[in-house]
Design a protein that fits this description.
Elements (H helix, E strand, L loop, with lengths): L2 H21 L4 E11 L3 E6 L2 E6 L15 E7 L27
Antiparallel strand pairs: 1-2, 1-4, 2-3
Amino acid sequence: MNMKAVFSLLAAAGLALSSAAVAAGDKTYQVTGPVLEVTDTMIAVQKGKDRWEISRDANTKVTGDLKVGEKVTITYTMSATEVEVKPGKGAKGGASPAGAPKKK
């Protein structure tokens, strides 16, 4: 095999592995319990004494007959949609935001 072919194979393997790493980057979680309610946008399950509502959309893969009363395991990810930073207890009115130069 010539060097050009070896480098091409290594580059292709590196690209494939980096794509897999990005796709696997989101941490997944699971919740298992009986279904309490099903809509086009949400599945509610009983987890212990708590009701868990998990959002869903047209891309949510469902295997089997999803209906109230069936025991299911839902795999989901968490992603922030908004972050609001509140001033800490020790913050003073004249404090500058992190990274901003202090006024003199």
